[in-house]
Amino acid sequence: MSDELSSLIDAEVGDRAGGWDLAGAIPVQVLRRLGAAGALCAEVPAEYGGRGLSGRRNGELTAHAGTLCSSLRSVMTSQGMAAWTIQRFGTRRQRSEELTRLTKGDLAAVAFSEPQAGSDLSAISTTLTDDGDSVVVNGHKVWSTAAGYADQLVVFGRYRDGAAAVVVPTATPGVTVRPVSRPLGCRAAGHADVILEDVRLPATQVLSGTSQSLSLLTTIALTYGRLSVAWGCVGIIRSCLRAAVAHARTREQFGKPLAQHQLIARHLAELVVAEQTATRVCEHAAGCWDDRSTELSSASVLAKHVAAGHAARAAATAVQVLASAGSVDDGPVARAYRDAKLMQIIEGSEEICQLILAERALEEA
N or C, which end of the chain has less CB nearby within 10 Å? Predict the structure, then answer.
């Protein structure tokens, strides 16, 4: 089944990723076709129209998309996070209605970060206020991936004595979506700021209808996102390895192919090590996901941290190997160089991941 979805992604992306990156947009009809085929949130169970992929198989599908287009993979991450949040916190009715929409072609995004709440999500100030049979949402979200395409937003905010996530259709009065201008990486991922001004919704749009612990709510959603980003970084590394090997095999300098120069061979070896290392930590985290292991949260942080770091270094190495041939803005290596840097920031910056891992080490010592 994942092979079928991989083939579909191949057909939809083709050689168009560079053009999408320069244009800053993926055609919406492409995203809707992939969404309706179940490719954007492939772990959604079959009872809701999804593909029911395991963590491992969904991870490999995500990595495959990442080899072709990190912007598309970013949309998959956001749609998957939205679906996972609904699946974990939604009522039976909410799961049936909302997840079915997402497997029929509707597009979704999650809205976490705010101007003063990036790494520190405890500083979220968006409010969800009960008003009779309605809930009123006010807040300002920033850098919401895929929000530029979304029909639905899963918005995280303070609710009653805790926090909650609420499903907000972007067509609702009071919702303003403002695209991020000229992002560094994943330029076609639909990054946008979201302004919510007295957005009135039926109270039934609040997932589970009750407040939750903010840390629990965000950690569960972020765990999916971190795994997805980590697998996407595996894809970036694989694309860089492929490009560097192809160039080193065919480009000649000083009378022999680049691959026969020891310093270039060293670069290729480093790319192999990066791909293998990132893949193995992602496989471990995916196994924790499938087993519902108590180690899952720390495994997802480790996978994201390791894979993002290797992706950034692998992209820099690939640019070095290709030299001027890798310095064209719409080329896969230059695109990977920009995209990979962004991966060290989103879903927990490199520094935040290090702090979490250090804290876990101290707890276990």
Answer: C
Instruction: Work out the angle at residue 244's Cα, subtended by the Cα atoms of residues 10 and 185, and round it to the nearest 5 degrees.
Output: 60
d(CA 330, CA 173): 38
Intra-chain end-to-end CA distance of the chain, in Å: 43
Q: What are phi and psi of 327, to 5 degrees?
A: -105, 10
> Cβ(101)–Cβ(93) under 8 Å?
no
> What are the tokens at 359?
């804290």
Q: In the prediction, which pLDDT does 364 show?
A: 84
Give the phi and the psi of residue 352 in degrees, each rounded to 5. -65, -40
Which amino acid does the sequence have at 17? A
Question: How far is residue 168's CA from residue 172's CA, in Å, rounded to a whole number?
Answer: 7
Question: What is the greatest pairwise CA distance in the chain?
Answer: 79
Q: Are 146 and 76 in contact (CB under 8 A)?
A: no
Residues 99-115 pLDDT 10s: 999 999 999 999 999 99
Cβ atoms of 166 and 147 within 8 Å: the answer is: no
If phi > 0 it is left, if psi is from -120 to 50 it is alpha, else beta; for residue 201 that is beta
Strands 127-131 and 152-159: parallel
pLDDT in tens, 284-318: 999 999 999 999 999 999 999 999 999 999 999 99
Whole-prediction pTM? 0.95
